[in-house]
Write a structure and sequence with these properties.
The protein is of the alpha/beta class. It contains 20 helices and 29 strands. The strands form 7 sheets. It has a 9-stranded mixed beta sheet. It has a 5-stranded antiparallel beta sheet with strand order 1-2-3-4-5. Strands 11-10-12-15-16 form a 5-stranded mixed beta sheet, with helices on both faces. Helix 3 packs across helix 7 and helix 6 crosses helix 9. The longest helix has 18 residues. The N terminus and C terminus are likely disordered.
Length: about 625
């Protein structure tokens, strides 16, 4: 046999062979760190340095990238998880460990000559559509004492025998005999490596079985291999990785069958190959298997001949990188047609291009006690008025307090009954109007009951919200506020900023998944020196990063109040960020507050808008008759 003369040097060990897993960093820290803690914001692990032993928390290990650095004295050591694995004999899993530093001992078969093809093997494989010249090229033979056993020799790129596999041609389900097995103690490599030639093509075709590889080769294809131990066996990867990486692309020609774990019918091998090799990967389409009529390449060869094999390879589809798509294949949408929440404040709706876009996380920030919760409830009322189903979480207000606020805002100032009492004015609405409002929106607005006391661990807020989205069709969700939400959600083992980042990230993903507008109320920092108001929300930087729209509702600055630009009772509503159109309004608009209905409106406009619950006569004269027993002591 003529051995291939590989002219190219073996590539250097590749760092991308290992895909970073944060759990590896956690395991290393627990094993080698005397004192370990999670730092805030950047998701690092801080610990004593395993190299110099100095500093309690001078050694940082990133939970995002696996990079590390020691800031203690003159140490300054740095690197990544592969560095730590090599320096501390730290395991990153069998595949990675064996690739970086092979230790397993295998039988040495390299001195054994490759066999000649046996006539009985040629005769049996002819029945599978494979011709004698192909059998001879791949040195297929039989066992001397058991001629019904086919022998498949696996030789490496140098032509040295490394692995041997057997197939019992008489095995059936009925007789219960094993169909395939391998010689014990041998190094697992790919079948067909010795027959490949990079000078012919730089495309490697990988199949699941030896007969499938022979079938593809029978159709005139070069560089065809099969895995040694099935779709779930990856022990060959450490010994063949550098060789496979010499090719420009891989065509995966696996079996097409039902996955017993998922019940889905799909091509095997693909996911494992894609995860392990970073080059261009193509997959034979289901149509080539006639959507299940054929199971593998040999079935295609017997049913469709060599033309069927070559058509399958020619039609193989590029798998690509998950989440990376051609830009102009994206859906073309007129942004004016995207579902939005009209805020009811005309100037803000203009700035945001017609309202706040749904399917996003928006942040409403402000200082304590300045009215941001009131403004947020008003946005919930706007959502209900526009046909959306709303969900309200408040970590501070009870159910009856939320109902009181919501009803007063929906009622409007002209329908509020002001009663003079011993301790000042009290504002209510009539039972008749309360019934009308209830009928108008009863199945359109829900709240999280924080007064329920469970004997079991309380369900997380995010789990409750997601379930509500699925079962009630929530389209607007108000989370008031971030800090109280974290009390019943988030990983308690993480520091506050890390928990906030995790919480906000999940909210943003949920908004996209369910096409829901989520409004998150957040406090402002006590002392902020940033010129960008998007950095002023107290806590993790992820709050500003994940928000697609950020509003700020706050008092005017002292100099603005002193100059008469804004009064003590007024507020400023600023648009800090709007990703939909890039608009900003840091100066903000001046807002007034109507105390009876608790409505917030732009100065110079009216708070007497309608929500749609009012009966027809209300539209004519603006009043609903109130029974005498409900009237109370009116102040006029």
């Amino acid at each position: 046999m003529k051995h291939i003369n590989w002219q190219e040097a073996s590539p250097q060990k590749e760092r991308h062979y290992y895909k970073f897993d944060p759990s590896d960093a956690e395991r290393f820290a627990n094993q080698y760190g005397k004192k370990v803690r999670h730092t805030s914001g950047s998701q690092n692990i801080a610990m004593s340095c395993p190299y110099c032993g100095g500093g309690d928390y001078k050694f940082t290990l990133s939970l995002k990238t696996g990079q590390f650095h020691c800031f203690h004295g003159r140490c300054g050591v740095s690197g990544n998880m592969l560095t730590l694995a090599a320096d501390f004999d730290f395991s990153l899993g069998m595949e990675v460990d064996e690739y970086l530093a092979p230790r397993r001992q295998y039988r040495d078969l390299s001195g054994k000559a490759l066999p000649s093809a046996h006539p009985d093997a040629i005769a049996w494989l002819k029945g599978r559509g494979i011709h004698a010249e192909t059998v001879e090229r791949y040195n297929i033979t039989i066992q001397t004492k058991r001629p019904e056993i086919l022998v498949f020799p696996f030789a490496d790129e140098r032509g040295a025998l490394q692995y041997v596999k057997y197939r019992d041609t008489t095995a059936t389900k009925e007789n219960g005999r094993s169909k395939e097995w391998s010689e014990s103690g041998c190094k697992p490599i790919l079948f067909g490596m010795a027959q490949c030639d990079l000078k012919k093509t730089r495309c490697l075709i990988i199949t699941e079985g030896q007969i499938d590889a022979l079938s593809v080769a029978q159709a005139g294809n070069y560089n065809v291999v099969s895995v040694p131990n099935g779709k779930d066996g990856w022990t060959w990867v450490p010994y063949c990785y550098d060789w496979v990486r010499r090719f420009d692309e891989i065509v995966v020609f696996g079996d097409y069958e039902k996955d017993p774990r998922t019940g889905e019918t799909r091509m095997t091998l693909l996911d494992g190959i894609k995860q392990r090799f970073p080059m261009r990967v193509l997959a034979v389409k289901p149509e080539a298997y006639e959507n299940g009529r054929y199971k593998d390449a040999n079935d295609i060869l017997k049913g469709g001949g060599t033309n069927g094999i070559n058509a399958a390879i020619a039609g193989a589809e590029f798998v690509g990188v998950k989440r990376v798509k051609h830009l102009l294949d994206a859906e073309r949408i007129n942004l004016d047609d995207v579902k939005k929440l009209r805020t009811g404040i005309f100037d803000l709706d203009v700035l945001t291009g017609g309202g706040i876009q749904c399917g996003v996380l928006s942040v409403l920030q402000g200082k304590r006690g300045e009215g941001k919760s009131t403004f947020a409830i008003q946005m919930a009322a706007q959502a209900v008025a526009q046909g959306m189903t709303a969900f309200i979480y408040s970590g501070e207000a009870t159910g009856y307090e939320l109902r009181n606020q919501f009803e007063r805002q929906v009622a409007g100032p002209e329908h509020i009954i002001e009663e003079a009492g011993q301790y000042g004015s009290r504002y209510t609405i009539s039972e008749a109007n309360a019934a009308l409002i209830r009928n108008w929106c009863h199945d359109k607005v829900y709240y999280y009951d924080n007064q329920i006391i469970d004997s079991d661990e309380p369900e997380s807020l995010l789990d409750t919200l997601e379930t509500a989205m699925q079962q009630y069709g929530i389209q607007f969700a108000l989370i008031d506020n971030l800090m109280t939400g974290l009390d019943i959600d988030g990983n308690a083992s993480l520091e506050r900023n890390d928990r906030q980042g995790q919480f906000v990230t999940k909210l943003a993903r949920m908004a996209v998944r369910y096409d829901c507008l989520i409004m998150l109320v957040a406090h402002l920092r006590k002392n902020s020196f940033s010129e960008d108001p998007n950095d002023e929300a107290s806590g993790s930087a992820e709050i500003g990063n994940r928000s697609r729209l950020t509003l700020q509702y706050a008092r005017g600055l002292k100099r603005e109040i002193d100059s008469g630009k804004i009064s003590e009772t007024q507020r400023k509503l600023s648009l800090c960020k709007c990703s939909a159109n890039g608009n900003r309004d840091y100066e903000g608009m001046i807002m007034d507050f109507e105390p009876k209905s608790r409505r917030i409106y732009k100065a110079g406009t009216s708070p007497s808008w309608k929500y749609g619950w009012e009966p027809e006569q209300l539209a004519m004269d603006g009043f609903v008759e109130i029974p005498d027993e409900e009237a109370g002591d009116l102040p006029w």
